[in-house]
Amino acid sequence: MDLHGFLKALVSRWPTVVVCLLLATGAALAATSLSTPVYEARTQLFVATRTGDDTAQMNQGQSFSQARVQSYAAIVTTRQVTRHVVKELRLRTTPEELASRITAVAPLNTVLIDITVRDTEPRRAARIANAVAQRFSAVVERLEAPKRAPGSERSGKSPRTGDGTSPVSLGVTQEAVAPTGPVSPRPLLNLAAGVLGGLLLGAGLVALRETLDTTLKTSEALGEFTTLPGLGTIPYDRNVPKQPLVSAEGHSPRAEAFRKLRTNLQFSQVDDPPRIIAVTSSVPGEGKTNTAVNLALSLAEAGLSTCLVDGDLRRPCVASTFGLVQDAGLTTVLIGQARIEDVMQQAGGRLSVLASGAVPPNPTELLASARMEEVLRELADTYEVVIVDTAPLLPVADTLGLASFAQGALLVVRAAKTSREQVRTAAESLDRVSVRILGTVFNMAPAPRGSGYGTYGSYGELPAPRVSDPRKEAAAATRPAGGK
Question: 388-407 burial, b for 16+ CB within 10 Å, e for fewer?
């Protein structure tokens, strides 16, 4: 799926994206409202070295402090510090839990240590940070203080090196104060994360659905998949169940689509035009009967004597579409109870209809019989075009026997409903019985945008007749030439 196809999928499946966006945003807002605010208090320590006034000693002490300060930062969260703070401040927590809320960082090439404490109360966070800084200073100075060697008092050594005084001292450069606002949660950040997460989730679901969806969305995709000529694209119309027949004088998108189908069918087989055409589909619900009925109407409208045969003996619908009698028809002729002309009904103009007749117990055998072939040839000798509405290919075997008597077949495919596998299996079924597939009809396609049909706007609409006023015309007739 390329970028263009992905963007079209996003537009067509926008409800999925909107739902994911709303869910993710709601989850982010809920998490923000349910989260306990967390505050951070920060204090800073300066590590100094006790040296004399000698510049060389001062530089050496500076290097010593920078080398040791990284190790000092790791001592902040030890039990020597946290256990004393918990006891001093009488905190209702353990030293280990308190250590998890303390962060100590020593910036490189400095002698500074930044201590940060997180807590659910701002004042308590500041108190803990200051207490940790004091206890930490005492622990470091105690650890760095050299132990007195035996007899040091009699040796006369300098107090700075042998009296137990630490060579380093830690001073507070910035005391912790109660923070004014929490660092967590962050409503705007959470909202932005929710929006971004919702969009990504929606896009991911759309991409997944498009990958798993094997239906055919466009007539171009159908043509590329089957390599069969696309003879027509019938737009979706919600009024079809109420008005299945297109008007012969209408200029609606559906009427024009069936005229285009008729024209393409006639010009696609100029050298060997088929006289008997079977209209079928892969599965039920793809609109094959409606296609057969309106194609027959369009052919009759063009002046061709047309016969429409209802060859779907399991669920016949042709007679009810035209409001004709269904009990007498094809099955009556096949079993020899009547002749074709006895049960043929007129649907107006040059269109004749042979209804299905009574539903038989053995439709497959009847449709594949030699008598069925004779009936179709008799009709072809009488009419210029014979359109046969057949049963779907995949559920039953009725059509395979009947289609072998036809001179061509139209395969109806419903947009965004029929899967690739169903179309492939149907085409292979017709090919196995040596049925020539004239082309495909892409049915119930998304209606074209615009007030008219196709890309020509209202090109197909006829201008409204001009209504004249007899009084104005009489006045104009009596007005002198050149008068005003």
Answer: bbbbbbbebebbbbbbbbbb
Amino acid letter, 345: Q
> Nearest Cα to 439, choosing from 428, 427, 424?
427
- Same structural domain for residues 51 and 97? yes
Looking at the 3D structure of the chain, how many domains does it have? 3
**Residues whose CB is less than 8 angstroms from the CB of residue 264 and which lie 6 or more positions away in sequence, other chains included:** 229, 231, 232, 439
Q: What is the CATH number of the domain that holds 243?
A: 3.40.50.300
CA distance 72 to 44: 13
Structure confidence at residue 61 as a pLDDT band (50, 70, 90): low
Do 7 and 45 lie in a common domain?
A: no
In whole angstroms, give the CA distance from residue 292 to residue 198: 46
Greater confidence, 448 or 81? 81
Query: Tens of pLDDT along 182-222?
Result: 998 989 999 999 999 999 999 999 989 888 889 998 899 99
Please answer whether residues 423 and 282 qualify as being in contact, where contact means their C-beta atoms are separated by less than 8 angstroms: yes
Q: Are residues 55 and 111 in the same domain?
A: yes
Task: Return d(Cα 447, Cα 478) in angstroms, integer.
Answer: 53
Average pLDDT, the chain: 86
- 441-482 pLDDT, tens digit per residue, is 999 998 766 544 443 444 444 443 443 444 444 444 444 444
pLDDT band at residue 249 using 50, 70 and 90 as cut-offs: low
User: CA-CA distance, 406 to 399, in Å (whole number)?
Assistant: 10
Which one, of 134, 141, 136, lies nearest residue 167 by Cα? 141
Residues 266, 200 share a domain: no
Q: Quick one: which of 307, 259, 303, 276 has its CA closest to 404?
A: 276
Mean pLDDT of 335-348: 95
The structure tokens listed for 21 are 């966006």
Confidence of residue 250 (pLDDT cuts 50, 70, 90): confident
